[in-house]
Amino acid sequence: MIISKATLLSDITRWQGQGYITADGAVEIRRELDRRSAGMAGAGPTGALAVLGAILLGFAAMSFVAANWDHMSKLARLSLLGFGILASYGAAYELFQRKLDVFAHAAVLLGVSLFGASIMLIAQMYHMDGHPPDAVWLWALGALAAGLLLRSNPALAAALVLVCTWSGMEVSSYRGAQVHWGFLPMWALVAGGVAMTRWVRGMHLLALALSGWIATSCLQSDAHAGRLVLTGIGLALALIAAFGGDLIDRWRRISGTMLAHGMVLAYVGLFLIQFVPRWMGGGYSEVNLWLWGAGTLALLIGAMAAGWRTHNGRVLWLAYAGFTIEIFALYGKKLGTLLGTSAFFFFAGVLVIALSAAAYRMRSELANAEIRS
Length: 373
What we know:
mainly alpha
């Protein structure tokens, strides 16, 4: 929930009048709000424009150097690139000191962009024909170092994007159908930076990146085992989040995100098992849709119940979407005969209605208990 500064100032006055805070405390709170407002000057649209401006400046610098590359000496090239990087990080430091954090982060991002351009252009200058993903890996390390030293969330986000790009290049172009385990330590380093800055949105990005790596790693081949592993990992994450959420949230409030990603991973694995045939020697192997379909619907209904219990709207909507996709996919596939399909949907409908009635009764009992207390 986002609260405006005007609303918060009004609340402070009201709390002071009710005796919840002292006059001196109210003054200090207002001063702290003013300091934070100054530090966040330019947040929102201005902050977005500042970051976009930094990206455009980075492309401008790369284009300028590339256009004049043949007319510059090696010393001039290296000096220009080095000066640009130092100037960017120096400007970021000065802006941080002046509490202009949004513009400071933009300057850090500009430095990260120039560092990546320097790697590419220097490799071109000295005709280095090495392993191309290594250049992206080095760029990611530079972005990570900037994010850790300057506590810059945009730089950490850039590092995560570069780590994912590097891992994808390794897998698709050079490692074939293999799991790229090198992704995990790099991901862990970025995760350490995000934990250090306590960046909530960064945790969502980390979860998304890790989920993508797990899914692609499990599905590198068409083997049935990969789909089962993906489903098992998703179920494990979802169950840990559902039953150990209170313990997890004492460290970081991430149980809701874990539940959502675990449910999605499990559903993707189950969907592939049911509807994407796998090649088995002389032909494609089918599965028992009755069994897998019932298990998938049970997973989604359980996720709905967990989402409702924990007030997790994201999990609820994802489960609703998955349930709808599953029903349409089963109908399109048809479970044997039309009569069998009808029976499956009938029992599924009765089950869902029964669960809905149970949830309604539970909610009524809880409301009555609160009234009595």
